[in-house]
Design a protein that fits this description.
With 246 residues, the protein is an alpha/beta fold. It has 10 helices and 7 strands. The chain is globular.
Length: 246
């Protein structure tokens, strides 16, 4: 899948310690090692889960079933996002954010080791609270990493569309559509995900417009921003970006 992305001209890869049940960074590192012209964004703030072979097997098995039913896939997606939002609320309520200067640096070192790189291009605080973004200690930690050449730039990455009002660093990543806040528009780099997730569908769960068209329209409407895409197979990725790369 990653090799197919490279063949299609994709050079920006977004990951996080928690993605892929904790394996995403390692997979990216194995494939992208030695490739100079790529940009890698990773995150800090949500812990890397312990890897479970049993859960990995269950995930692969359930994917086969979900791929055969649009209704089941839609229901599973809604359940996942509901559980994720609840988990984020619990983390916020507990005050456990793991964003001290030492943890931010330690998490970066672990990510770099798995990515097989000496530095990362973009370092995002994962699902930050307004207090996180206003933290002078956190800003200082990030600025120190930039000064040491361990990260190229930093910012915030959230799963929702409604953005905290405080601009953090020079990168803003959030769900589609773009927020109305002028502060987020001032970010040097804006990245959006979920173009298809929020797109209009009919009663049967089918898109009213073809996914490649939705992606192309989003890119044309935000020509100075990056649009993240996700696909489970090389074939689906090629189909999704066909309207853009043609």
């Amino acid at each position: 899948l990653i090799e197919a992305a490279l063949d299609l001209g994709i050079r920006y890869f977004d990951t996080a310690p928690m993605y892929g049940m904790g394996t995403s960074e390692e997979v990216l590192g194995a494939v992208l090692k030695g490739i100079p012209d790529v940009v890698i964004a990773t995150k800090v703030g949500i812990a890397r889960p312990p890897y479970s072979p049993l859960k990995a097997i269950m995930r692969r098995a359930s994917k086969v079933i979900l791929d055969r039913s649009r209704q089941l896939r839609t229901a599973a997606r809604r359940a996942y996002h509901s559980l994720r939002r609840r988990s984020e609320r619990e983390i916020e309520a507990s005050g456990i954010r793991h964003l001290t200067a030492s943890h931010v640096r330690q998490s970066l070192c672990e990510s770099c080791a798995l990515l097989e790189r000496s530095s990362v291009d973009v370092y995002l605080v994962h699902e930050p609270t307004p207090d996180d973004l206003a933290s002078t200690e956190l800003v200082k930690s990030m600025e120190d990493l930039v000064a040491e050449g361990l990260i190229g730039c930093f910012g915030a990455g959230i799963s929702a569309c409604d953005a905290p009002s405080h601009l953090f660093g020079s990168v803003w990543q959030s769900a589609w559509p773009p927020p109305e806040s002028d502060q987020q528009r001032d970010a040097s780099l804006r990245v959006y995900h979920g173009v298809l997730r929020g797109a209009a569908r009919d009663s049967g769960g089918r898109f009213l417009k073809p996914p490649p068209t939705l992606l192309r329209e989003a890119m044309e409407g935000q020509s100075e921003s990056l649009i993240l895409v996700a696909a489970s197979t090389p074939e689906k990725l090629r189909e999704l970006v066909s309207d853009v790369t043609a």
